[in-house]
């Protein structure tokens, strides 16, 4: 431990673990960069309720140890009671108890909550007990969705109002934070970065050979959990429209698996069968990060049909590989795809995506421009800015 570095207790329910090595990987990368400037103690509480691991959706939780290491960071995974559906507002209460107990022997100068809820609410309570300041990083659903719920909305506002600093991953989210009552002078936008060593252009011939794809075909990729809000079904419907109109139909590769949020895979399979797109849509499951550059490089475009996104990491990953984006105009996405030379922005419907696929066939994107834009965002830069906010929070707390 470096006595010159601030001591920060980090609370995040999203963090890689042995059962889910890719879960919250963007949080881990940011914290790894910040750890160069601060001593971090990371708590990644795991939701628990009686007999929960008997259910398929939550079965992986029993494989998560109490302690582990990820990205060179030591992590604790304490459990907290979390009852699904109607009792979600109590998550913050039980989380507060869990982190209080797990950190009872620790000394720290600041608490860093990696979401406004439940982490932010719990952090405010613990900060009052330990008499230290706390800061929050908002990432999307915690401020653009949860405020729609009466109780959790109030909990989010309570957390934001007490934070010394509030960081957002997108400017649209920062403005949302201000609209929820947080003083603007306490806020700052710190975009996510991209690992340019992992995500880099690969010759298309090589990528197709490695992935056993036909070089003559045109491919689109959609990366994300198999849940409704990711919009994979909209992309399938757009291919169906092209097929009905006897237009060229590209092959859509859907990369992702079910999550605790839900499992939309059966709906997708039924939709594929309904439109007879078995040859045009490939469900390849979850892929490790080091394999994604091959998929991006083999594709003509990344498609992101999400209804909600804070700052989708797949956007920069695709651009870093020299592949343009077709995405919806939601939250942080227009901040990444900020020029027509980077991709095509559309409304979230099958007709718009079908038109964009046709437009893509007539467009040309300069690979060097895409890579150059992605390179402007680094995890090192994000880590430095986060650490600077730690110092501000401690100095004004």
From TrEMBL:
GO molecular function list: glycosyltransferase activity
Supply the EC number(s): 2.4.-.-
Question: Does the keyword Calcium feature in the UniProt annotation?
Answer: no
Q: What class of enzyme is it?
A: transferase
Source species of the chain:
Singulisphaera sp. Ch08
Report if keyword Transferase is assigned. yes
The protein's name: Glycosyltransferase
Q: Pfam families in the record, alphabetically?
A: Glyco_transf_4, Glycos_transf_1
- The domain of life is Bacteria
Keywords tagged on the record: Glycosyltransferase, Transferase
Q: Which residues form the Glycosyl transferase family domain?
A: 213-367
Start and end residues of each Glycosyltransferase subfamily 4-like N-terminal domain: 78-196
What does the similarity note say?
Answer: Belongs to the glycosyltransferase group 1 family. Glycosyltransferase 4 subfamily.
């Amino acid at each position: 431990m470096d006595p010159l570095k601030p001591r920060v207790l980090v609370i995040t329910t999203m963090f890689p673990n042995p059962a889910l090595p890719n879960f919250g990987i963007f949080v881990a990368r940011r914290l790894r960069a910040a750890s160069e400037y601060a001593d971090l103690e990371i708590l990644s509480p795991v939701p628990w309720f009686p007999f929960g691991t008997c259910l398929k959706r939550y079965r992986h939780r029993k494989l998560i140890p109490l302690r582990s290491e990820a990205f060179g960071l030591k992590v604790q995974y304490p459990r907290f009671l979390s009852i699904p559906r109607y009792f979600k507002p109590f998550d913050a209460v039980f989380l507060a108890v869990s982190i209080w107990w797990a950190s009872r022997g620790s000394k720290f100068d600041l608490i860093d909550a990696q979401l406004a809820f439940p982490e932010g609410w719990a952090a405010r309570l613990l900060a009052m007990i330990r008499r230290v300041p706390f800061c929050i990083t908002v990432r999307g659903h915690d401020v653009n969705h949860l405020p729609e719920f009466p109780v959790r909305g109030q909990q989010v506002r309570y957390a934001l109002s007490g934070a010394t600093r509030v960081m957002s991953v997108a400017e649209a989210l920062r403005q949302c934070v201000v609209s929820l009552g947080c003083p603007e002078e306490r806020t700052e936008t710190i975009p996510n970065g991209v690992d340019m060593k992992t995500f880099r252009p690969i010759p298309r011939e090589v990528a197709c050979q490695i992935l056993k794809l036909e070089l003559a075909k045109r491919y689109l990729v959609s990366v994300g959990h198999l849940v409704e809000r990711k919009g994979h079904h909209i992309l399938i419907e757009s291919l169906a429209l092209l097929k009905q109109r006897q237009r060229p139909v590209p092959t859509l590769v859907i990369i992702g698996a079910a999550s605790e949020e839900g499992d939309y895979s059966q709906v997708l399979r039924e939709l594929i069968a309904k439109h007879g797109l078995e040859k045009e849509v490939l469900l390849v499951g979850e892929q490790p990060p080091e394999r994604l550059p091959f998929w991006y490089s083999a594709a003509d475009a990344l498609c992101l049909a999400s209804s909600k996104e804070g700052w989708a990491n797949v956007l920069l990953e695709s651009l870093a590989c020299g592949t343009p984006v077709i995405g919806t105009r939601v939250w942080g996405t227009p901040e990444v795809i900020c020029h027509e030379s980077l991709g095509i922005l559309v409304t979230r419907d099958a007709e718009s995506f079908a038109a964009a696929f046709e437009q893509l066939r007539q467009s040309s994107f300069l690979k060097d421009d895409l890579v150059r834009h992605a390179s402007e965002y680094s995890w090192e830069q994000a880590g430095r800015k986060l650490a600077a906010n730690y110092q501000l929070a401690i100095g004004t707390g």
